[in-house]
# Entry
Amino acid sequence: MLRYLIPVGLFVALIAFFFVGLGRDKETLPSPLIDKPLPQFSLPRVDDPAQAFSDQDLAGQVYLLNVWGPWCVGCRQEHEVLLEIARRNVVPIVGLAVPQSAMVDANDQPLSFEEVMGEIGLAQRWLRELGDPYRLSVFDQTWRVAIDLGVYGAPETFLIDGRGVIRYKHVGPMSLAVWERDFLPRIDQHRSVGG
Amino acid sequence: MRSLWVSAALILWLQTAFAIDTAPAFEDPVLQARYEHLARELRCLQCRSETIADSNASLAEDLRRQLRELIAAGRTDQEIMTYMTDRYGDYVRYRPPLKSNTMLLWAAPVLLLLIGGTVAAVVIVRKSRLPDDDLPEDDRGRSSSVS
# Structure
């Protein structure tokens, strides 16, 4: 009788491992950029592409950086939540609009402004029709900034503190539950530290 | 029969072709070889069981483009891998790095083989030492008269 306990015991241990494993979130990758400075960027504004906007323009403020695109289904899902968060007026939301794939030609050179204007126009229309939760949005034509931020699947939302340091990242559509549980406490924490 | 071997050899050799780009990215064969090698070392984070060399996902295309840019800019293989892991973490390396938290991952196959082999050896040795008592009763008389 006793010698059967060993394989049974191993089996139970294995099942326990599987059970714990099933409950874990394996989709989200831990970001190596938490507590690191936001990568510098200077990108054209979606509302006025002739003008540039850079990370320096928000120095000193705590804000959300939301990566989105008019092609992105998850972004459509979270849009109502972003509008609500913007209504609550806790921190500004800055949009980083990305095309589905980098807009470059066969030689890896960025496509011309005229060619890109169509995509920016789509983004403008999306905001006009669905509402604009953003203080402003900028357009990342070549995905350079998105890659610098370790973006692998839109939508993604970053929390940036007053010193330009990334403090939190959420991958996937935003929800009010995530906002209240994961973002608000950190906003309070980093606001009180002088920005 | 010979053509069968030739076909098999050809098929296996063609596995090394880098078919995801429409044309080689670099004219310099050294750079092209580095590009193909590194593209097989980086994971596509949308289709995570594939490398960026194999995946058709848009992120894979963008990461390949970034890889081409880094190689053209003269970065070393080490610098390029660091560039990627700085942004995406260790998981972007297709082969997990050997670190303290991946020791068990790498050691597991060898460990399981050793444990399984030991258990098998012990069981087999023990069983081989038991007397032959597996003949059915009515055969006992017959076998003892033969031996």
Q: What stands out?
A: The radius of gyration of chain A is 21 Å.
